[in-house]
């Protein structure tokens, strides 16, 4: 079990000032940086950090399998079109792809001047 005799209880600085934090684009480096600083805080903090990273990896794995299942269910071409449409509108997540497939929006031609659903946008109507 975790003991309260960690460096945080003793008032020892972890050295984390937030300025040398690795970029999100460098996830392996960020993970190592965070794990290192979590270990400095104590075994319980380190355990929580390891658990959070494991949960995030499991979630990414499940979402990736779901995405691959869409290729089997709808065809790889439709999946690619749905992903392209989602990226065009800067939308993320499987719920967006489910909506695109449910409404057959992946079959519509791509138009940057239209909403996700194909409705044309007018420049003067934007807030």
Question: Can you describe this structure in just a few lines?
Answer:
With 127 residues, this protein is mainly alpha-helical.
Determine the structural class based on helices, strands and strand pairing.
Answer: mainly alpha
Number of strand segments: 0
Low-confidence stretches: 4-14
Secondary-structure element string: HHHH
> How many distinct folded domains?
2
Determine the strand fraction and express it as a percent band. Answer: under 5%
Structural descriptors:
2 domains, mainly alpha, 4 helices, 0% strand, single chain, 127 residues
Q: What report would you give on this structure?
A:
The protein is an all-alpha fold and 127 residues long. 54% of the residues lie in helices and 0% in strands. It has helices spanning 27-41, 43-74, 76-88, 94-102. The longest helix is centred in the middle third of the chain and has 32 residues, at 43-74. The chain is elongated and about 55 Å long.
Explain the layout of strands and helices:
Elements lengths: L26 H15 L1 H32 L1 H13 L5 H9 L25
